[in-house]
Design goal:
Length: 395
């Protein structure tokens, strides 16, 4: 499907063109920044009065995602609407999509927000995922194969940053963990021996054009992304290519429109396994703001309004450090010292309450060479109190 291009308006029409975003978190904030830089106005629908995206948008509709007057107001103002987190209820996107261009569409989001449907989609696309079982009934529980233990029990819906996940070693632990989760639909995944994690971000337009970033290597700590490395040599080239091809088939299989991130595991034996997908820009792609000629947020704007999807180019080796609320426990981190490093790019999301594990911002380091960017990341980690990667060395 091709839609007419939605231009920014303004000087040519006397009216601004407003783009809407469902959800007001940091991803919506960075979408708003990208849209505004290109001349669009932005409107955000989010129940939180102080949402990071609401704070920087021309209009913040403070309403629940399924609130009909709120949705009507958003449709009234906007020429097209996107979403910034996968837990926006698909029915809300369906309502909006009946009247306006909405990307990603309700059907893609409905699949990505339900691990059971998501895994079925991976299987349909022929991309291997972790061995798993669906838990919806007591019979499902009784039928769980011993080979899935030890495993990770994950709620089918509403999990993020490792929330809604419990590691279980035995059948007794599994039974107790599922009861603790009130027997909501879950998947039990075999606990896999990971060697590395990576993700691939693609943008796919209304006409099926698809562009991608080079895969980035990710380190998670306690189920939360901690560090992303994006540079040549971060991953074996054949593995990177395999991940790109798998991501393309996952996006094409959904007839996806928008920015999509697919997360993968690399097992100890080198096998590539798909973990999950996010129907939106992703934390592991934040480095694209500073290290690529077009960011994942600009590609989100371009896909939404039907502008050309130029293939992005990584112009500098980059390392992204997530800044979690833990760093604020003794007051503000020493950002002045960090910003003394050439190539340090600080992004804070305007959140006023630091909490352990809460994503407050990120720091991207760029440099001319991989050795230099690693050396800078090492210094930044020391200043901020983040554990560095073992391979980084001082200059
Ligand atoms: P987010 O949406 O923030 O990426 P999430 O809550 O959806 O996180 P997952 O991506 O499912 O969580 O898992 C978080 C991390 O836990 C993974 O990146 C990986 O480090 C670890 N993990 C998850 N599943 C497995 C598994 N089957 N085997 C080994 N490790 C796993
Ligand atoms: Mg994940």
């Amino acid at each position: 499907m091709s839609l007419p291009v939605i231009l920014p308006g303004g000087a040519s029409t006397g009216q601004p063109t407003t783009l809407g975003v469902m959800g007001g978190g940091q991803l919506g904030r960075m979408f708003a920044h990208a849209a505004q830089r290109m001349g669009y106005f932005t409107a955000v629908l989010d129940p939180d009065v102080a949402s990071p995206a609401g704070l920087v948008s021309h209009c913040h509709i403070q309403a629940d995602y399924l609130d009909e007057p709120g949705l009507a107001q958003l449709m009234e103002r906007c020429a097209a609407i996107t979403t910034e987190f996968e837990n926006v209820p698909a029915p809300a996107l369906r309502t909006l999509g009946a009247r306006l261009p909405v990307a990603p569409g309700a059907e893609s989001v409905a699949i990505a927000q339900d691990r059971i449907k998501e895994k079925a989609h991976f299987v349909r696309c022929g991309v291997p995922c972790a061995p798993y079982a669906v838990l919806q009934t007591e019979d499902d529980l009784a039928a769980v194969a011993d080979t899935l233990l030890p495993g990770i029990l994950k709620t089918a819906r509403l999990g993020y940053d490792g929330r809604g996940q419990v590691r279980v070693r035995t059948r007794a632990e599994l039974t107790a963990a599922w009861a603790n989760l009130q027997h909501v639909p879950c998947v039990l995944e075999q606990l896999l021996p990971l060697q590395a994690e990576l993700s691939v971000i693609v943008a796919r337009g209304w006409d099926g054009t698809l562009v991608h970033y080079p895969p980035q290597a990710n380190l998670h700590r306690d189920g939360i992304l901690a560090i992303t490395s994006a540079y040549e040599g971060n991953l074996p080239p054949a593995l990177a290519q395999q991940a790109i091809e798998a991501t393309k088939s996952i996006a094409n299989g959904l007839s996806y429109v928008g920015v999509l991130c697919v997360e993968f595991f690399v097992l100890q034996d080198g096998t590539l396994i798909v973990n999950e997908m996010a129907p939106r820009p992703h934390n592991s792609g934040h480095y694209t703001l500073d290290a690529c000629d077009v960011s994942q947020f600009e590609l989100q704007v371009r896909t939404l309004v039907g502008l050309p999807l130029a293939a992005p180019r990584l112009h500098s080796p980059a390392i992204m450090l997530n800044l979690l609320g833990d760093l604020w426990l003794q007051g503000s981190p020493d950002f002045a010292q960090v910003l003394a490093l050439p190539g340090a790019h600080l992004h804070l999301y305007g959140k006023l309450q630091p909490k352990p594990g809460r994503k407050m911002g990120h720091l991207t380091l760029t440099a001319a060479t991989v050795a230099q960017v690693q050396a800078k990341a090492l210094v930044a980690c020391r200043v901020l109190g983040i554990e560095p990667l073992p391979g980084w060395s001082a200059p």
